[in-house]
Design brief:
Layout: H1 3-15, H2 17-24, H3 29-38, H4 45-54, H5 59-66, H6 69-75
Length: 79
Amino acid sequence: MSIESAKAFMERVLNDEDFRKEVGEIGTAEERMAFVTAAGFDFTKEELKNVQEKMQLTDEELELLAGGNSCSILLSFAF
């Protein structure tokens, strides 16, 4: 598990609308984690939170994340 993987996941969620939508439509934490792992990412909840805190997002990126399901992907990613 790694911070690098969590950062790559965050970047993909921010930059890939289809991926963001797919992850956002997954109902349970277990299913979400299985999907994210199958997509090649390997990180803990703590690593993701660490990356979230360290990334300096633009106003546009914050607005994007707050605009629906994608907010729950990043702000309450539960395992």
